[in-house]
Specification:
The structure is a single chain. This protein is mostly helical. The protein has a domain of 66 residues. The chain contains four helices and no strands. Helix 2 crosses helix 3 and helix 3 packs antiparallel against helix 4. The longest helix has 22 residues. It is elongated. It starts with a helix and ends in a 22-residue tail after the last helix.
């Protein structure tokens, strides 16, 4: 199967309500559970970075943990644009 055939299959999937978005993932990330998961994952990375790892590696891990924490607090999904949606998980308009 060619790559373009795979893309067509995904775009024509009847389980998706919006063309171009992986709605199952995006819908979860838009939900309260997805937001809570991002916040908890961010806090966990920060705590693990400072408490368990320590040093430069721990500091880097804690800084990386700020990304999902901030995304959860701002209620945005940073992966949504890669899946054809805007940061809030809404389908992108095809014009302009």
């Amino acid at each position: 199967m060619s790559v373009s055939g795979t893309v067509e299959t995904v775009e024509n999937d009847p389980d998706q309500t919006t063309k171009g978005c992986n709605m199952a993932f995006v819908d979860f990330m838009k939900s309260s559970a997805g937001r809570a998961l991002r916040i908890i994952a961010g806090i966990a990375l920060i705590v693990i970075g400072f408490a368990a790892v320590g040093g430069t590696g721990g500091t880097v891990l804690a800084i990386v943990g700020l990304v999902p924490l901030a995304a959860g607090l701002a209620n945005v999904c940073l992966f949504a644009p890669l899946l054809g949606c805007d940061l809030k998980g809404n389908p992108r308009s095809m014009g302009a």
